[in-house]
Amino acid sequence: MFNLVRAYLYKTTKSKIFWVLLALTTFSAIGMFSIAYGIGNNSINESISNVGFLLSDMNTMTIVGAVLATILICSDFDTKNIHHPIISGFARIQIVVSKAIVFWILLIVLVSPYIIVTIIGLSMDSTFSMGGKAAGYLSILTLTTTGSFGEYVTIMITMAIVYLAQLTVCILLAFALRKSVLVVAAYYMMSMFFGQVASFQNSFEIMNKILSFTPYAAEYITINLSMSKGDMMSAISICVIFIIVVMYLTFMTFRKAEIR
To answer: For this UniProt entry, which residues form the secretion signal (predicted)?
Structure first.
């Protein structure tokens, strides 16, 4: 299986689209950081906060994660390359797990610009703000409370795990739908719906309660220092269980699928 991971990693990183995605997250992270710094220090009007929030990781990674799944998985169905490892004797579970490992590794690479600017921001003696709009690493960057180095590391690692869990759904969609356009559209609509539920929790009480058992819960989107260690462990546990369930569903989908 290690050879499969190496092969998929090599194939995906050789794709121009991957490097376009990395450039997108890099420039978006820099833009988000600059706007948050400008608003926090009153050098930029708060009215531009919508642009800054649009560039934030919570919005960017929704598209980036879905596109990454398409170049890693859907492209193999399009080119019929999905046949090669099966003919070579690899079990379907090995193919699913190998692609998932590569997907998670590359997701960390793609979100790393946001992690870097967040670390830089936390190390500066400056105020960052996005006019009250904050989610993901942006919510960590705009923290008004201070904490220890260990606390910052913990919430950033937890946020990364939340992203991995959320975007693992893209793997399931890619194996189920197989078409790039459908995968991107489906996940984007899902994330928009979950975002609306998180924004208007009182209006979607039943759905919000259901999402509380998933990484899409509102409290996991805005992780901050006010969360206790128990809450952090709960978030990580839910994410791990969610990943296992989604991976099982992905394997079952792929195992029963007829490959042409």
So the answer is: none
